[in-house]
Amino acid sequence: MATSGKLSRLGNNFIQFQKFHNTTKYWTNSGNRKVLRHPERWRIIPSRGFRTKKSKIEFLAEEAPQESQRFRSLVKPIGFTVMVCGCSFTGAMIWQYEGMRSYATKMKSGNNQSTNDLSFLKNFGFRKHISSMWNSLTEGEKMVWTITGFNIAVFLMWRLKNASVNNALYRYFTCSPTSGHSVTSMLWSTFSHQSFFHLFANMYVFWSFSGVMLHLVNKEQMAAVFCSGGVISSLASFMHKIVIKGTMPSLGASGAICAMIGLVCMANPDSQLTIAFIGDILGFSFSAEKGLYGLMTFDALGLLLGWKVFDHAAHLGGVLFGIWYWKYGRDLIWNNRGKVMQMWHQLRGKT
User: GO:BP terms for this protein (predicted)?
Assistant: First the structure.
């Protein structure tokens, strides 16, 4: 039974330590393996999206919860999921209200000057150029770039040669029902990628669907769907791991992206989709409806057959949430936002 453990780094190699009755074992990613006991304890983190066959960073999975605690351990994740979904959509409604109020105030005062005209405040050439580029984006595009930038920032943090940073990333930016992870990792792991290919693939798909989604819903709804889809996919992953007694952590934005895919494909079932790069070469395309059903079938097979490359439960959870939101969630949540806006207006007052 493991009594204590920590993560450290030496040079370019990550070293993991675990004590077994005063006996220490370690493993490095350079290919040199020295395992004194229980070699089956070492696990590779599966991502919610694409990943290479050999991960650059590998962590030791903690002990699975005891039988009596397995389903009890879902109480906090379920509560956190409900809280994040509620706060995401409530915050989106308030965000839209404040935007409308700000616009009305500017129109009333006659100050309808574009933010592009304020770029003269940046006196230096580079800052002025960056400011001009940023101000030329729509509000929706700014939000997409912000989400992308956060993902890139977390990816760069994984590259730091600092044991305390890596410990924090492991605890808060990888998702697992085991005791070594914070429940907030259900959200933060949505923005976490440890390999460049994983980051590139997810951001490519994210950008491919974000433009279409912004034509279907406003930026506030898109942000709420992305965050809610991320935690719901994490909850689905939690449930699956508890059922199969799995302990391997997951990370990646593909659960939230699958929510976007489910929404877009359900809204435009006859639209034509292609597989990245392959469709341009072979000229092969398929309808969004067939692509959605194909994705769900693939992930369902992955669950039934026990495939380990992707987090299929997270993908299915995200897709089903996106489908539900387009068919029912908009009428149930967003179209009733008037009550929330009225309460916020009264609470805010004239300030």
Answer: signal peptide processing
Q: What pLDDT was estimated at residue 125?
A: 63
Phi/psi of residue 14, each to 5°?
-85, 135
Q: In which element (H, E) is residue 306 found?
A: none
* First-last CA distance in the chain: 58
Give how far Cα 44 sits from Cα of 51, 58, 68, 138, 308, Å: 11, 5, 27, 40, 10
The CA distances from residue 63 to 47, 60, 102, 264, in Å, are: 19, 9, 52, 39
The contacts found for 113-116 with CB under 8 angstroms, 24 or more apart, are none
Phi, psi of 268 (to 5 degrees): -130, 70
Give the 3-state secondary structure of residue 24: strand
Cα Rg of the chain (Å, integer): 23
Q: Among 166-180, 214-228, 275-289, whose mean pLDDT is lowest? A: 275-289
Q: CA 14, 18, 24 angle in degrees (round to 5)? A: 100
Q: Which residue has the higher pLDDT, 111 or 193?
A: 193
Average pLDDT value for residue range 197-225: 93
| Mean of pLDDT over the chain | 77
Q: How far apart (Å, rounded) are the C-alpha atoms in residues 255 and 9?
A: 30
Active site residue 254: yes
Average pLDDT of the residues in 157-170: 91
Q: What is the pLDDT of residues 289-302, one digit of tens each?
A: 999 999 999 999 99
Q: What is the DSSP string of 256-297?
A: HHHHHHHHHHHH-TT-EE--TTHHHHH---EEHHHHHHHHHH
- b/e burial code for range 47-64 (CB count within 10 A of at least 16 → b): bbbbbeeebebbbbbbeb
pLDDT digits (tens, 9 = 90+) for 41-54: 334 444 454 433 33
Buried-exposed string 267-286: b where 16+ CB fall within 10 A, e elsewhere: bbeeeebbeeeeeeeeeeee
The single residue of 181, 193, 312, 315 carrying the catalytic annotation is: 315
Closest CA to 217 of 322, 114, 145, 314: 322
Catalytic entry in 119, 237, 254, 312 = 254
Record the tokens describing residue 14, joined without a space: 């990550």
